[in-house]
Each structure stands twice: as structure tokens, then as C-alpha cells.
Automatic annotation (TrEMBL):
<keyword id="KW-0472">Membrane</keyword>
<dbReference type="InterPro" id="IPR003400">
    <property type="entry name" value="ExbD"/>
</dbReference>
<feature type="transmembrane region" description="Helical">
    <location>
        <begin position="20"/>
        <end position="38"/>
    </location>
</feature>
<keyword id="KW-0813">Transport</keyword>
<protein>
    <submittedName>
        <fullName>ExbD/TolR family protein</fullName>
    </submittedName>
</protein>
<keyword id="KW-0653">Protein transport</keyword>
<dbReference type="Pfam" id="PF02472">
    <property type="entry name" value="ExbD"/>
</dbReference>
<comment type="similarity">
    <text>Belongs to the ExbD/TolR family.</text>
</comment>
<keyword id="KW-1003">Cell membrane</keyword>
<keyword id="KW-0812">Transmembrane</keyword>
<keyword id="KW-1133">Transmembrane helix</keyword>
């Protein structure tokens, strides 16, 4: 008789995990919906070194590779198209800001061209990505 009593007690003490799974599922949906995704420029670059470096969440990433090719949103962009492309991306996200990722071998003229185009379309926050030395 004591064997049946312990089995009944064990069954009565089982924990129902359904509410906990519901909460975890809702939290998962919340984090997926609120997550911000970083847009990649489309080309890998070796960033120049700097003594101070800080990277925040950005809206627009522009890369300049060692051949002085400009890449925006995984597409190669000609010099004359930079302003139009930045203007389109600015229209999609008016509060966004720009990060230029130049290669160590990239010319400063390309970086200046991108920064100038960004200022002309109204992007006030422009920064250059570097690696901490």
C-alpha cells in the first residue's frame, strides 16, 4: 500500500512547464522583432589603425577597398552615383548616420568624396571606422 501512495504523491508534485514555455516563446518573438540588424557594405577591408576607436550602431556603411572602389549595401557604386545612393538610403532612414570603412591602402580622396556627398544630402553624423592600435 505504501508503494501506491508514493506514486500518487510523485504524480501530484510534477511541475507544469507550459506557462514557462509560453513566456520564453513570447520573449523570443520580442527580441527578434526589436533586434536591429547591421548592414554590411559588401566588401572586406583592412581598416587603418587609430589610437581611439568607437563603433556604435549605424544605418549606412560605406566601404572603400584597396583598389579605391566604393561599396554601399553590397553593391559597387561609381563615384558619380555616391550622392544619389546616399540620398536614397537617407530617405529610408532620416535619423541614420554614416560610417566610412576605408582600407589601409585606400586614397583619402575617396573618403573625402563620400564625406562630402553625405554632408550634401544632409547626413550630419559621419565617422571613419578604424582599428584600435
Amino acid at each position: 500500500m505504501s508503494k501506491k501512495k508514493t506514486t500518487a504523491e510523485e504524480e501530484g508534485q510534477a511541475i507544469d512547464l507550459t506557462p514557462m514555455l509560453d513566456v520564453v516563446f513570447i520573449m523570443l518573438i520580442f527580441f527578434i522583432v526589436t533586434a536591429t540588424f547591421i548592414k554590411e557594405p559588401g566588401v572586406d577591408v583592412l581598416k587603418p589603425e587609430a589610437t581611439q576607436s568607437e563603433l556604435k550602431t549605424t544605418s549606412i556603411l560605406v566601404a572603400v577597398n584597396n583598389n579605391d572602389e566604393i561599396w554601399i549595401a553590397k553593391e559597387k557604386v561609381e563615384d558619380r552615383q555616391v550622392r544619389n545612393t546616399l540620398e536614397r538610403l537617407r530617405a529610408e532612414n532620416p535619423k541614420g548616420w554614416l560610417v566610412i570603412q576605408p582600407d589601409k591602402e585606400a586614397s583619402i580622396e575617396k573618403v573625402a568624396l563620400i564625406a562630402d556627398a553625405a554632408r550634401r544630402v544632409g547626413i550630419e553624423k559621419v565617422s571613419v571606422a578604424t582599428e584600435k592600435s
